[in-house]
Amino acid sequence: MTSIASPGLARFNAADTPGAAGQLHHVCASGAWGAAVLAGRPYEDVEALLAASDAAMAALTTEDLAEAMAGHPPIGRPKPGDARSAREQSGVGEALREELLELNLAYQDRHGHVFLICATGRTGEEMRAALKERIGNDTDTEREIVRTELGKINRIRLRRLTEAGPAEEGD
Predict the structure, then answer these.
(1) Phi, psi (5° rounding) for residue 92?
(2) Nearest residue to 149 (alpha-carbon basis) of 36, 41, 65, 64
(3) What is the pTM of this model?
(4) How confident is the model at residue 77 (pLDDT cuts 50, 70, 90)?
C-alpha cells in the first residue's frame, strides 16, 4: 500500500533545513528533539513523522525536557499574541486563571518548572484537578508524566503542521 503525503507534510519534507528546523521549533523547543525529527526527513506519511517524534521524545534527557518545557507558558497565562497558545488553553475561563497561576507557582517551587499538561480539549477545571493531583508527585514520576504530556502536545502540533495550508503553519 502506498501513501500520499499531505500537502503540509510535502512542504515540510521539501523545506530547506533551516526552514524545517524553524517549523519544528514551533512544535517543540527542545533542540535535541528537533534535530532527531529533522534527521528523519523525508517522511512517507504523517504516521512515520509521529513515530519519529515519539522516538525522539523517549530519548530526551532531563536537560532536553527542561529546554522543551521552557517553551511553554504557564496554564492560565497563554503567551500574549500567540494564537496557538491561546487555542491550546482555550478551556481555561477567566475565573480560573488566577487560581491556576497560583497553583502553577506552587508546582514550580516544588518541581522547578512550569506545570505541563496537554491542554487541548480539557476544561480549566480538569487542568486544575490534574495540577492539584500532580503537585505532590516525586520528581522522577513527574518528569515521566511531563514527557508523556509533551509527546501528546507534539503530536497535536505536528498533525496541525502537516494539515495546515501555508498561511496557517505559524499560528
Answers:
(1) -95, 115
(2) 65
(3) 0.83
(4) low
Peptide bond into 74 cis (omega under 30): no
Q: Which residues of 94-129 are buried (b: 16+ CB within 10 A; e: fewer)?
A: eebbeebeebbeebeebbebbbbbbbeebebeebbe
Instruction: Answer whether 115's CB lies under 8 Å from 75's CB.
Output: yes
C-alpha cell at 109: 517551587
Of 50, 29, 31, the residue nearest 40 (C-alpha): 50
* Count of C-beta atoms within a 10 Å radius of residue 86: 15
At 169 the pLDDT is: 44
CA distances from 101 to 115, 128, 141, 171 (A): 10, 10, 22, 24
